[in-house]
């Protein structure tokens, strides 16, 4: 019960966010969808049907190695895709690209130049906003980090 979204077939991304004002999730869904669309179209060129995918011995060997060598401790987990359908390959490739791109950037590239400026992050303020025209407001305009 810790999820941030629920299935919703009527929404553009087939999920509805439980927290509506959550830019990371909103933007992430849009990026995920764009990656997934591109992966689907690209893989359709090489794998027009599931039979072609199942017959690709190099792909099947790669998936076996990823599962059994790369994740030997979890190789028998029931959640692993069997890699028997193009849809399974699309999901695996989308996940890999997401992790190596958007997720990596969000987690590893600091936001300090933006978020370090306190007026950009009102959630870290410890006092109410000063009233316009007050001495505190003038101080806020001069040195926002001191006021908060």
Automatic annotation (TrEMBL):
<dbReference type="GO" id="GO:0016702">
    <property type="term" value="F:oxidoreductase activity, acting on single donors with incorporation of molecular oxygen, incorporation of two atoms of oxygen"/>
</dbReference>
<dbReference type="GO" id="GO:0034440">
    <property type="term" value="P:lipid oxidation"/>
</dbReference>
<dbReference type="InterPro" id="IPR000907">
    <property type="entry name" value="LipOase"/>
</dbReference>
<feature type="region of interest" description="Disordered">
    <location>
        <begin position="124"/>
        <end position="148"/>
    </location>
</feature>
<feature type="compositionally biased region" description="Basic and acidic residues">
    <location>
        <begin position="139"/>
        <end position="148"/>
    </location>
</feature>
<keyword id="KW-0223">Dioxygenase</keyword>
<dbReference type="Pfam" id="PF00305">
    <property type="entry name" value="Lipoxygenase"/>
</dbReference>
<dbReference type="GO" id="GO:0046872">
    <property type="term" value="F:metal ion binding"/>
</dbReference>
<dbReference type="InterPro" id="IPR036226">
    <property type="entry name" value="LipOase_C_sf"/>
</dbReference>
<feature type="domain" description="Lipoxygenase">
    <location>
        <begin position="1"/>
        <end position="148"/>
    </location>
</feature>
<keyword id="KW-0479">Metal-binding</keyword>
<dbReference type="InterPro" id="IPR013819">
    <property type="entry name" value="LipOase_C"/>
</dbReference>
<keyword id="KW-0560">Oxidoreductase</keyword>
<protein>
    <submittedName>
        <fullName>Lipoxygenase</fullName>
    </submittedName>
</protein>
